[in-house]
Design brief:
Distance between the termini of chain A: 14 Å
Low-confidence stretches of chain A: 1-10
Number of strands of chain A: 4
Largest sheet of chain A: 2 strands, antiparallel
Structural class of chain B: mainly alpha
Mean pLDDT of chain B: 80
Largest interface: A-B, 87 and 90 residues
Oligomer: heterodimer
Radius of gyration of chain A: 30 Å
Distance between the termini of chain B: 50 Å
Shape of chain A: elongated
Low-confidence stretches of chain B: 1-19
Number of strands of chain B: 0
Order of helices and strands of chain A: EEHHHEHHHEHHHHH
Strand content of chain B: under 5%
Strand content of chain A: 5-15%
Helix content of chain B: over 70%
Number of helices of chain A: 11
Number of helices of chain B: 14
């Protein structure tokens, strides 16, 4: 018997976790796929690089203005240049960290890269996502990502520093592969902060299924036939097939509906006939669902066509 | 029972009913009628959540904002009932995603970035630092030991100097340099290239040491211990060198303008790393991940403060160093900065703090 309805058709079984809200509702959350997280990081990184280039250009334009008088730089010019260098380092540092901080502390808990991939940061033990958690996980990212990158760039430029280059690479790989060695895909930053990254689906409300005439009365407007299915015909299928049928009906593709109608008719021993497949399927769906829900209220559930029970 | 429902609904026969009651009754299935009754609430919560996620919270009316927690609980209870009575997969998926989104908003971060910053500077940082007093003690002992160790090693055998002190520092500051040469590096032309580069290099080195000391706390704190000891050994060796020519106090004064701030930052960073490492190695009664998470949050608060201190040290290094050219003034500045930091972190309790989360 499946644990709860609505999950029959969803795929990521291994990544599913249950989070219990303080109201006592068990919400299923799906831990984000590692590939999605990597893609989100890549997007954020590209945004960061663009901003970095812009800032570098801006500062060197200011710096170029300062030394435009040529020749020996005066004391004031050197002081100004050093001040600018400090400010620039500061701005870059704040940019790198502040970008993640401001977005992950916002209402959506996701940077633009994460938003595009449909994932967000959440607290792992099901509590409040506090600012300290977000700061912790971003500080550790400095060490996982930016530090070896800088080391690599510095070392990679000179041939006799290749040990440093390999060291940086090794350091980076250890931290990059850490999410693959634990079940919830936690980075080092997630472990230290007590957070995890979950999928944040935004589902639209689909219309109710049993509102059409074929559903309510069982008749088809096109062909004029009335479909009434008895116990024998409705007893063959379970919840899984019902929800597959719902998916087919919601998608509304003609060939799929024709195929499914033929399959059902074969199973229950009816002659398919040409005509209004949609009406047939809606009538069957509504009557099957009414039957299964009635039994569900009595505590009898039939998860799919192989399961026993009435 | 199911067929009766269909026949009754057939009397109304409509799918385009205008009135709500007709629309509700038009649904053939009981679970769909349940849904039609509650759909308005769900859509209202959806609208509120969507606007809050887009950051347009100002466009919500007061009634909508006050209704958010109530609607959240209403929809959550709808979800609980729907799970038991409905087989409509799309509606269940919708309800689950809506409840999840509302959950993150109702139980999300309470303060924005600037609210948090105000609390941090207003006593949160000091509280975090005081919370790791034992690791501070360990780090302090290690740093003193490193300093003494560097001094003793070099005074015992001068060859140790080249092993301990990195090459970038040793251009003219080598054993055997005369007092005149050493004095020149401390006083006089503040913009001489080698002097500027030493100070800048020292700053960058110390900033890197601070961050590495925290980061390597993740490896059970062992590399942090080594980093702290080594860093202070370098300073101990250089002080020995200058002291040999009678310039020990002048060298300490030269360092201390920004050095007190920087060394205090390294102390805090090392303590933060040790805090994380110790809780990973000795979690007590808690699970390892939970202990690490708690220690990590406190340590990262301290690290934000460390970064601020390094920024202050950089500014001091950039400006105060060349404006002040004699030993007593330098010692005064260094000592005052140290006293201010210690008072702010340890003596001041700040306004009464409420935790950011219950």
């Amino acid at each position: 018997m499946r644990a709860a309805t609505g999950k029959a058709l969803r795929n990521p079984g291994k990544r599913q976790r249950m989070e219990v809200t303080p109201e006592g509702i068990a919400l299923p959350v799906t831990v984000a796929a590692r590939s999605a997280r990597f893609a989100a990081l890549a997007i954020d990184f590209m945004i960061f690089i663009v901003a970095w280039i812009v800032i570098q250009l801006g500062f060197s334009a200011m710096g170029a203005g300062a030394s435009a008088d040529g020749g020996e730089l005066s004391e004031q010019a050197m002081t100004a240049a050093r001040f600018l260098a400090i400010v620039k380092a500061l701005v870059l540092f704040l940019l790198g960290n502040g970008y993640f901080l401001v977005f992950e502390l916002g209402p959506r808990g996701a940077t633009p890269g994460k938003r595009l991939l449909g994932i967000r940061v959440a607290a792992r033990q099901g509590g409040w996502l506090t600012a300290e958690m977000v700061i912790a996980r971003n500080l550790i990212r400095d060490i996982e990502l930016f530090l070896p990158m800088v080391m690599f760039m510095v070392a990679g430029l000179s041939r006799d520093n290749w040990t440093t280059g390999w060291l940086a690479f090794g350091w980076f790989m250890i931290f990059a592969l850490l999410p693959f060695f634990n079940r919830d895909g936690l980075r080092a930053g997630d472990m230290i902060a007590g957070t995890w990254v979950v999928e944040a689906p935004r589902v639209q409300l689909a219309p109710a299924m049993s509102l059409t005439e074929a559903a309510t009365a069982g008749t088809s407007k096109a062909t004029g036939t009335t479909y009434r299915f008895g116990e024998r015909e409705l007893a063959v299928y379970g919840e899984y097939e019902l929800q597959t049928l719902e998916k087919v009906l919601r998608e509304g593709r003609q060939e799929a509906m024709a195929t499914v109608q033929e399959a059902i008719c074969r199973k229950i021993g009816w002659d398919p006939g040409k005509g209004d497949e949609r009406a047939f399927l809606e009538a069957y769906y509504t009557q099957l669902r009414a039957r299964l829900e009635a039994q569900m209220r009595l505590g009898v559930r039939k998860s799919d066509k192989w399961a026993g029970g009435s | 029972m199911a067929l009766e429902g269909i026949r009754i609904a057939g009397l109304f026969g409509g799918r385009k009913a205008e009135a709500t009651d007709a629309a509700i009754a038009a649904a053939a299935l009981r679970s769909d009628r349940f849904r039609q009754e509650r759909e308005a609430d769900w859509l209202r919560l959806d609208m509120i959540v969507k606007r809050m996620e887009a950051g347009r919270i100002g466009s919500l009316s007061d009634e909508d904002l006050l209704a958010l927690p109530v609607l959240y609980r209403t929809v959550a209870s709808s979800l609980a009932v729907a799970r038991e009575t409905s087989l409509d997969a799309a509606t269940l998926a919708y309800l689950e995603s809506l409840v999840q989104r509302a959950y993150y908003l109702v139980y999300g971060p309470r303060l924005g970035f600037f609210g948090w910053l105000r609390r941090f500077l207003g006593g949160g940082w000091g509280a975090a630092v005081r919370g790791m007093w034992f690791d501070l003690l360990i780090a302090l002992v290690l740093m003193i030991a490193g300093f003494i160790g560097g001094w003793l090693l070099v005074s015992g055998d001068v060859e140790w100097y080249r092993s301990i002190v990195p090459a970038q520092f040793t251009d003219t500051r080598v054993p055997g340099a005369s007092a005149q040469v050493l004095r020149e590096t401390l006083f006089g032309n503040a913009n001489a290239p080698d002097k500027a580069s030493l100070a800048t290099y020292l700053f960058r080195n110390n900033a890197g040491v601070a961050i590495m000391a925290f980061a390597l706390g993740f490896a059970f704190g062992v590399p942090t211990l080594l980093l702290l000891i080594h860093n202070m050994a370098v300073i101990g060796a250089m002080v020995w060198l200058f002291d040999g020519q009678g310039l020990g106090l002048d060298f300490i004064a030269w360092l201390s303008i920004h050095g007190t701030t920087e060394l205090l930052a390294i102390l805090l960073a090392g303590a933060a790393g040790l805090h994380v490492g110790r809780s990973m190695a000795f979690p007590g009664n808690r699970p390892v991940l939970a202990a690490t998470a708690e220690a990590g949050r406190r340590a990262s608060l301290v690290m934000v403060g460390v970064v601020l201190m390094l920024v202050v040290a950089a500014l001091l290094e950039g400006f105060a160093r060349q404006l002040v050219d004699n030993t007593p003034a330098r010692l005064t500045i260094g000592g005052t900065m140290l006293a201010l930091w210690l008072a702010y972190l340890f003596a001041w309790r700040g306004p009464a703090l409420r935790e950011t989360a219950p």
